[in-house]
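Q: Hi! First time doing this. I have a protein sequence and I read that you can turn it into a structure. Is that right? Here it is:
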Amino acid sequence: MPPNTCAQCGGNLERQTITHRQQWGEELYEFENVPALVCRQCGEVWLEAEVGQLIDKIIQQHPQPKKYHQVPVFSLAEFTL
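A: Yes, that's right. Below is the predicted 3D structure, encoded as structure tokens:
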């Protein structure tokens, strides 16, 4: 049984389906329809071990993704505030 209290703030955790982004080396992967526990107070996201393991396995196996996103990247060091 997963915990129902947030370890960060003590708020209540609620089961939700989220979009999760996972950094793997230089690559960023996005997963849709991910079951997660989300704190209703602070928004902290917790993935159960099986979910995290499945995400790692998918990344390592390199299956054909459902779709791609093209994301522009900026370095704030190149701009003045």
